[in-house]
Amino acid sequence: MDVLLDPNLAYLVLVIATILAILALLSPGSGVIEVGAVIAGLLAAYSIYRLPLNGWALAILLVGGALFLGAFFRKDRRWLLAASILCIVIGSAFLFRTEQWWQPAVSPILAALVAVISGAFFWVVGRKLFEASTATPRHDLDQLIGAIGEAKTHIHQHGSVQVSGELWSATSHQPIPAGSLVRVVKRDGFTLEVIKEEQTRESEQ
Fold this sequence. Notes:
The protein is an alpha+beta fold. The chain has two domains: 2-134, no CATH class; 141-204, CATH 2.40.50.140. It contains six helices and five strands. It has helices at residues 7-26, 32-50, 55-70, 78-93, 108-134, 197-204, and strands at 148-151, 159-163, 166-171, 181-188, 191-196. Helix 1 runs parallel beside helix 5. The longest helix has 27 residues, at 108-134. It is elongated, with a radius of gyration of 29 Å.
């Protein structure tokens, strides 16, 4: 286990554990990723426990992470990304304490390479998640209100209509024969309340 006391290897294990932990949160239930995250986390915890840390370097590392997250919400994000990568590289290089405080325990080249690769990974994954969380769902059922469809069966208390290429349960206050054009006026769960399209046109006239 003494091999884990090499600061460069300890740093790599810590980064791998972080990436696997995030992947496990994003895609739970795979099993393999969770096991890998636990093993890498235990190895990283052992290294951190045995190797002394620089508190100031850890603070810089956290600032870099905060700047990286802030870049998601700013239009002019280039300077934030540059500042975050710089903070992450410095914080990573000096994360583990040496006899001389100014001497990095982790190779700056390794820290820079890992920061760029892992930063690109987190940026792509983070942007995809952000876009997914802010995008309008493709199956937003409220968008069906006002849509035109076709009655596939006779509709009164019960029936079915085809709207937006899909078959839905439908109900209507007035009888609607099969084959008629209908307009969706209300949604109750997965049941659409419809009226005959000719009624809508007559009311408009």
